[in-house]
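Hi all, posting the design record for the shared folder.

TITLE: backbone redesign
STEP: 1 of 1
STRUCTURE INPUT:
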């Protein structure tokens, strides 16, 4: 497991180097390999339960979405469409994560209500910071809404039933959410910064690795 974690982070770092140099084809390959590491880690940690299978499916969709998001630079004529498809695949992964942990929630209605309110507040703030087409904004609302709901449920589970699984999964979800916020601001903000790109990718891979690692503690 340690080797996979280190390999994932090294490949992610190499991906960032290639992307910054605009070597987009090797960058896609390196990103796909980095993401494959957290998928394999999840499979290794999985006890084979229904919950674990849903999480692994979410990890697989995350891996696919990672490749799609960077393929937009390889096929720039279809870049916007590829980006939107990648976000849709990521959204599907978040829904699978949510389906995995929602049955564990002691108060699902409360978590969902809090998630809706926080999503509205966050999106109001984000829309003030960015300039994006209507289609991207619509996708953004559903996407951020799904991961915010996931965070509220995951944190609610941790508070009501502290455990290694709930702790690691909640931490992974939080890293994922912050990573996505940074990605949106850096992609649609007034200026794209490499430092924010590094932050986005670093938080993302740490989040996915934590989610994968959490499966070894599934009861």
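Okay, here is what came back for every position:
SEQUENCE:
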């Amino acid at each position: 497991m340690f080797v996979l974690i280190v390999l994932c982070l090294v490949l992610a770092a190499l991906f960032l180097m290639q992307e910054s140099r605009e070597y987009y084809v090797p960058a896609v390959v390196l990103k796909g390999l980095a993401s494959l590491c957290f998928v394999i880690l999840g499979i290794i940690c999985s006890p084979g339960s229904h919950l674990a299978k849903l999480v692994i499916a979410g990890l697989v969709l995350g891996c696919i979405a990672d490749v799609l998001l960077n393929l937009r630079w390889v096929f720039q004529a279809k870049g916007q469409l590829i980006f939107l498809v990648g976000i849709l695949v990521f959204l599907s992964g978040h829904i699978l994560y949510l389906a995995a942990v929602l049955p564990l929630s002691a108060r699902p209605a409360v978590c969902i209500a809090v998630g809706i309110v926080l999503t509205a507040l966050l999106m109001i703030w984000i829309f003030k910071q960015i300039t994006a087409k209507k289609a991207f904004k619509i996708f953004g609302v559903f996407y951020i809404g799904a991961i915010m709901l996931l965070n509220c449920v995951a944190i609610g589970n941790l508070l009501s039933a502290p455990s290694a699984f709930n702790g690691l999964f909640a931490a992974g979800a939080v890293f994922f959410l912050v990573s996505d916020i940074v990605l949106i601001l850096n992609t649609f903000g007034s200026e794209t910064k490499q430092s924010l790109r590094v932050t986005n990718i670093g938080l993302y891979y740490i989040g996915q690795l934590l989610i994968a690692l959490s499966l070894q503690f599934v009861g």
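COMMENT: The chain has one domain: 2-217.
Let me know if anyone wants the other runs.
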